[in-house]
Specification:
hpI Integrase, Chain A, 5% strand, three-stranded antiparallel β-sheet, 46% helix, DNA polymerase, domain 1, mainly alpha, elongated, 5 strands
């Protein structure tokens, strides 16, 4: 009661109502027997979380559905019936260790924590809508280390020879699918941005494509969403002349809202179908022709961004082409170490040491006599 009243002594009537009349000087016997007010109902984590999700405004319905699914599968079975005010850091550590024991990926645990659970605890630390006291004074996830995340190296197409092997294999397997794969490699667009690219987004004169819509999976179905992943997703990407000819030929006289790249049945490509029926065959043929290692389709995006970085493209341009909010995201995740910079490094070292001035001659050194007394 003292905390509720801002760390001040509670009013006499509240003390009497709660059965503490003996603490009020001069209170008569009648007031001392006043029935206490019913204590507030205990708020469980599940009750508070469902109310919190109901009041969320910003996320779209699919995002809210994803949050709810995570809670029901990974959180409510362990914490749902616990009073949200009593959950401790130890409980949260044990809960997280349980997710690790279930073999959930570190990235998945990070998403469950950061996007779904932590905001609920943060909301519980705020006063209620009618200025009710906060249910918590701290977020029990703060200070709890995330599981170590080990990113497997993304295999990229490193040089012109490897790019040629992939492109030639694609056109041998399916020229229609090869046009889409060529665009993925030449623009660095995400799958949903490329598969959902409309004719009206292509500007042949400027040699660019604009990201105006994306294909996104919702309720296990791919749907056209009239907005990129983030506001930074709205961007214009330069396209090489040879690739623009391929794209322009596909546009032809199609309607402005039509897809540039279409599957055999006429609709947009489904990621799973393209990957299983086209990409795996392309990769197998390229490997048979000499391509090293196993490339992933998303590695094509990594490949382009790595090439541009190694060629000295400025950071702002690189971030814009990638559609990222921060340059650090582009460099930390998408730019990889390659051998493309080796010639430049060798030349820079030669210039620094004056190695081009002429050959060095090795002078023989007299052997030192390390015998005692010498």
């Amino acid at each position: 009661m003292v905390e509720v009243h801002g760390h001040q002594w509670p009013p006499a009537e509240d003390l009497i109502a709660q059965g503490f009349a003996y603490l009020v000087p001069g209170a008569d016997a009648a007031s001392a027997t006043t029935d206490p007010v019913e204590p507030p109902a205990i708020v469980t984590f599940e009750t508070f979380a469902l109310d919190y999700l109901e009041r969320l405004v910003k996320p779209n319905p699919e995002t809210k559905r994803k949050y709810l699914e995570r809670l029901r599968v990974h959180v409510f079975p362990v914490l749902g019936e616990r009073p949200i005010a009593e959950i401790t850091r130890r409980e949260m550590r044990l809960w997280q260790e349980g997710l690790v024991a279930k073999k959930l990926a570190a990235k998945t645990i990070q998403n469950i924590r950061g996007e779904t659970v932590s905001p609920i605890f943060e909301a519980a630390c705020l006063p209620g809508e009618d200025d009710e006291p906060p249910l918590r004074t701290y977020n029990p996830l703060k200070g709890l280390a995330l599981p170590q995340r080990i990113r497997p190296p993304r295999e990229i197409v490193e040089d012109q020879r490897e790019a040629r092997l992939v492109i030639e294999a694609a056109y041998e397997i399916d020229p229609n699918a090869a046009d889409l794969m060529l665009t993925l490699l030449a623009t660095g667009m995400r799958w949903g941005e490329t598969a959902g690219l409309p004719v009206q987004a292509v500007n042949v004169e400027r040699g660019t494509v604009s990201i105006m819509q994306v294909l996104r999976r919702e309720h296990f179905q791919w749907k056209v969403i009239p907005q990129p992943k983030t506001k930074d997703g709205y961007r214009e990407i330069p396209v090489p002349a040879q690739v623009m000819k391929v794209i322009a030929a596909r546009c032809g006289s199609r309607d402005r809202d039509a897809f540039v790249f279409t599957a055999p049945m006429g609709g947009h490509w489904l990621h799973d179908n393209f990957y299983d029926d086209r990409w795996k065959k392309i990769r197998t043929l390229a490997e048979a022709n000499g391509l090293r290692k196993r490339r992933t389709m998303y590695g094509l995006r990594h490949s382009l961004l790595t090439w541009l970085a190694s060629e000295g493209v400025d950071l702002t341009t690189l971030r814009t082409i990638a559609g990222h909010k921060r340059v650090s995201t582009t460099f930390d995740i998408y730019v990889h170490s390659t051998r493309r910079h080796h010639p430049k490094v060798k030349q820079a070292i030669s210039d620094l040491m004056g190695l081009e001035a002429g050959p060095f001659t090795s002078q023989p050194h007299a052997a030192e006599d390390h015998r005692p007394g010498r």
